[in-house]
Amino acid sequence: MGHTSLEKIIALQKKTPHIRNLCILAHVDHGKTTLADCLVASNGIISSRLAGKLRYLDSREDEQIRGITMKSSAISLHYTTGNEYLINLIDSPGHVDFSSEVSTAVRLCDGAIVVVDAVEGVCPQTQVVLRQAWLENIRPVLVINKIDRLIVELKLTSQEAYTHLQKILEQVNAVTGSLFTSKVLEERAEKDAEAQSSCTENGSGDQVYDWSAGLEETDDSDLYFSPDRGNVVFASAIDGWGFSIHQFAEMYSQKMGIRSSVLLKTLWGDFYLNAKAKKIMKGAQSKGKKPLFVQLVLDNIWSMYDAVVTRRDKEKVEKMVTSLGLKVMSRDLRHSDPKVLLSAICSQWLPVSQAVLSMVCEKLPSPAEISAERVEKLMSVGARRFDSLPEQTQELKKAFLDCSADETAPVIVFVSKMFAVDSKALPQNKQRPLTQEEIAQRREQARQRHAERQAANQSAETLKGTELNMLPTALSVKTAVEEDNKEHFVAFARVYSGVLRKGQKVFVLGPKYDPSLLPEGCSAADVLPSVPHMACCTVDSLYLLMGRELEELDEVPTGNVLGIGGMEEFILKSATISTSPSCPPFTPLNFEATPIVRVAVEPKHPSEMPKLVRGMRLLNQADPCAEVLIQETGEHVLVTAGEVHLQRCLDDLRERFAKIEISASKPIIPFRETVIRPPKVDMVNEDMGKQQKVAVIHQVKEEQTKYPEGVQVDSTGLVTLTTPNKMATVGVRAIPLPEEVTRLLEDNVELIRTMEQFSLFAWEDKTLDINQKILENIQEFKVKLESNLQGRKWRGAVERIWAFGPRRCGPNILLNSVEGYRRPSVWQCLEREKETEKAEIRDFDNSIASGFQLATLSGPMCEEPLMGVCFSVETWDMKLSAPLAQQDSIDEDSQTAEPNIDNQNESSDTHETNASSASSNRSRSGAEAAGSSVDCYGPFSGQLIAAMKEACRYAFQAKPQRLMAAMYTCEIMATAEVLGRVYAVLSKREGRVLQEEMKEGTDMFIIKAVLPVAESFGFADEIRKRTSGLASPQLVFSHWEVISSDPFWVPTTEEEYLHFGEKADSSNQALKYMNAVRRRKGLYVEEKIVEHAEKQRTLSKNK
Amino acid sequence: MSIFTPTNQIRLTNVAVVRMKKAGKRFEIACYKNKVMSWRSGAEKDLDEVLQTHTVFVNVSKGQVAKRDDLSSAFGTEDLTEACTQILAKGELQVSDRERQSQLEHMFRDIATIVAEKCVNPETKRPYTVILIERVIKQLQQSIQIQRAHMRLRFVLPARDGKRLKEKLRPLIKTVENEDFTEQLEMVCLIDPGCFRDIDELIRCETKGKGTLEVLSLKDVEEGDEKLE
């Protein structure tokens, strides 16, 4: 078959019923790309000699080197059997990391070729792809590949091979069956739930009896693969042969005079040929006869391999060739490698492309046969039911089903991914053979240039200036070249309805677009109203995808796979394109793998940061599964599906998108610091307090170093600290907050922020309008807080909250326990109507709060934010000196002197301002003024901030400190046999299993566990490796958890000595984390430079 | 010549000498290398891991032990261990190689951390990572765009001072984010943290305490993660 011309394909594209969109799916290394090669070769695009070796669709360099496919790529093929068919073939990768690429491929197809290795059988990815095909409602056909390995490697007899093949078929069908069962059960459960809700009075007793009814009622016979149904092909793509039973049935019906329909039914299965009776009988196995399949089919192939490969019997080969009526070139006959001869014979005798393509054309549906069920599934996003969509949208379903290429039909296109193409590869820029005139022209130009150069050389010494003039032009040429190397994005898409034309105006609908939000009556031609997730653009260029090449097209009718250029501005990863704005976005792709491997990337040369950012943006667009983000810490994080995927992303960044050297490292792990109630038991679970503390070396220096001068700590943890100028003293105590309160504070950050804003406005005597809903929420939040802060210690605490921190809205509380100081509460937005009794704000109130904010932002353990700590200010004394007071009174000249209410402060200078008095003077202005008393310690407000911050830190340290680690919840799906290994990996990484249950209707277990983020690097990959891909974890950040071990713990009691030894070298998890963070931040780490003094190299250097 | 040839010069190996002059006398103790700093910082708690011997010398390399009388007159005790700890704490010593190395490393880290903490990328308003800063410092020929993270201030000035003060404040302010001049001048602006005291002083003196100054954020950085899209 010759090379199919572009015109032919264009003509075929218009015949929708003769189009087949299909993808090849399989486990890694089962021969997808090789099979694709054979199919490509049948169209004369590559030589059939090279088929299977070239891997034409693996166009990336690393794909060729590694020998695995990493992206899905499409090619259009032409096939004739009476009718002419256009086959849009998409090859997909098999590796787990790239299952997102499979999703993008499956979405665009109507059918799938599932390839299974005849030796390895059903592998984990086979199951996955079958599931994916199932979820997308596309019809699969089966190719059992690598049959040659059964003959050559395993040296099975044809009889053994038959049983082996049967087994594989059973395995595949078992997978399909379980998918089917789970779906039926699911539907049943839904129905049950509906039934139950509709008639609750019905006793549930009768439900028990018909539990299996659902399964029996539903017909599943057309789901399964069976050779006699014609949806199975046996093949060896590498040797270029393949057959379906159909072919042999035809062949033998002519030869033996048995009707082909009978043969078709009996050729696979437990039948044998009774030669005497000339009858086909049942029960070959029980009678010890050769099944028909072995006798008529396998034996022939076996003898062929025997003659050609094993014994190299030339005469026999020639006999076979002539009897089959084939022509083999003498060059092939003489070739020393028998494989060459074999593939020469086989590819003529039983060409694999013939077998596969005819099966595809017969068994797989054309785009026009799209099922209503699938359409509804595609159109209903998320949990939305199809019937809930707007009417106009529902009407589009008809367009889907019609699949018509009419002018009037609305255009509906789905873009499943964007892929980057070198601008050189675009057809516009492709080099074409030059015409005669052009060649002449170029020659002329070259001659001129040559002449100029010679002239320049002659006058080089005299005319340096000209060269300088020429320099800028050279530079501009260079930039032009760089421009050329820009990556172009092509959208990988399929037309579901209508005809997409070049220059057409279309709507691009993002995945979050909602057609029901649309204003009435607007079409693509209108000026676009701003609707979220919708853009309007003109189709730039259309391409026919031919593997590594692109061919330009002017229009693409319905049912075809195509590439769309110039969409990178509008589409991020996937989108729906339509001329009708009421078209809903398609359901998001089902990704089997979510990105979990996180790394931080940095350019080798820091100045290339902008390039990196640009490159990462491009990468994000080009890869359906990669995620990129900039973290608050300034790290650029790349999240990928696995290590191989990561490697590919990094390669892409280096060579295509950023074109710079980059390095990847573990990202920074966040921690939180907190305090807890003093533990009752020690590390060996002995009751504390009763035991005698052993005199220890550890305690020798500790006491003296802990607190500097000016800090007093009493036994209850109250810390009193005076500012350097001895003007003010604050007493602070740290109290752990109950866990529920912390969670409450975290969940209500927005509310706290609103409250904070309100207080700020109130401060300025303005009011902020908060809507009723939020006020109710705040009220509810307050009630919840109160209910969680019970007990004597917390009496009235909620009313006394001074501030939240850090950043004014964090999970820590500053409590006002100063006797006699009543400041306006943070809840004042709730009490607006009541006009509460006049609360006053003292000077420097803000400084105390600022000190608290600073202290909570970075704790003493490793400068990480605090969490779940309450700082209670118990005393706050101020002694402001006379000059300050005077200055203040000057400030207050416009204000009427107010009586001093505060008795606690003897000093008369603390002027009290009414928060409610609407004067332009506020206490803070006085505060700032007071701060102007310049002494050697700087402004007073600053001193107070620092003092408060230090006091908080010491108060924190006076309590048992703990580190909090970020935790992932991780959900692992695993089969029963690898369960043990999953547990091993989890426990090695400090994970904790929460629950484990069996998934209904399958043999999969679902394990829920929590795992510290710090231990999660390489976790997914390790689990995958250890379970050979049978378990795949999904990690999601869930919460912060206190690490139970004390980072400052040293053994003190006799028991602990016995258990841990003197130094307690056994790893302390919290200490390990803490020191890692401190080291990273350049803080002091209590570590000896040399562990053992005697074990140093004792010689001096110059000896 | 592989035969060991004795020399008349004896070198002490693995010994760090800590010296102290007290009461007109010189005292020395023999310690292990790389250990004295750990002791001083409190990381090493075992005295035997620091001292070679609980003896106070006059000269360690000559092996001359200090006299008991001198010890008691200088340290007020005859307890050798006590004297040793005093010398360890206050004496002078030659910092040994690895101690110096770790000190330098520590300082370098510290500097990089401070730079990373205080500065942002002016384009993205996001901090740089410490590792990146370290790398830039090490390879000095490279440069990145860096800017001291701005401080966000909000001040309210009485109307009559407003206009006058604004002119004076103008050169100190980087960008004005919000300005509202109705009955009083209210401004939210970004400043270089170095100017804070000047501004504070200016407002306090010029308005005689009537203006208010509030720090909204110490450093103006982008919060939260950003998805690159």
UniProtKB/TrEMBL annotation, chain A:
Organism lineage: Eukaryota, Metazoa, Chordata, Craniata, Vertebrata
Pfam family, one: EFG_C
GO molecular function terms noted in the UniProt entry: GTP binding; GTPase activity; ribosome binding
Species of origin: Cyprinus carpio carpio
InterPro entries in alphabetical order: EFG_II (IPR041095), EFG_III/V (IPR035647), EFG_V-like (IPR000640), EFL1 (IPR056752), EFTu-like_2 (IPR004161), P-loop_NTPase (IPR027417), Ribosomal_Su5_D2-typ_SF (IPR020568), Ribsml_uS5_D2-typ_fold_subgr (IPR014721)
Alphabetical list of NCBIfam families matching this protein: small_GTP
GO biological process terms on file: cytosolic ribosome assembly
Region (Disordered): 441-460, 885-928
Residue span(s) of domain Tr-type G: 17-368
Polar residues: compositionally biased ranges: 896-907
GO cellular component annotations of the record: cytosol; ribonucleoprotein complex
Protein name: Elongation factor-like 1
Bias (Basic and acidic residues): 441-453
Biased composition (Low complexity): 914-928
UniProt keyword S-adenosyl-L-methionine present: no
UniProt keyword terms in alphabetical order: GTP-binding, Hydrolase, Nucleotide-binding, Ribosome biogenesis
From TrEMBL, chain B:
Keyword Nucleus (UniProt): yes
Biological processes per GO annotation: cytosolic ribosome assembly
Sequence ranges assigned to domain Ribosome maturation protein SDO1/SBDS central in this UniProt record: 109-148
Record-annotated Ribosome maturation protein SDO1/SBDS C-terminal domain positions: 151-218
Its biological purpose: Required for the assembly of mature ribosomes and ribosome biogenesis. Together with EFL1, triggers the GTP-dependent release of EIF6 from 60S pre-ribosomes in the cytoplasm, thereby activating ribosomes for translation competence by allowing 80S ribosome assembly and facilitating EIF6 recycling to the nucleus, where it is required for 60S rRNA processing and nuclear export. Required for normal levels of protein synthesis. May play a role in cellular stress resistance. May play a role in cellular response to DNA damage. May play a role in cell proliferation.
Family classification: Belongs to the SDO1/SBDS family.
Subunit structure: Associates with the 60S ribosomal subunit.
Descriptive protein name: Ribosome maturation protein SBDS
Organism encoding this protein: Cyprinus carpio (Common carp)
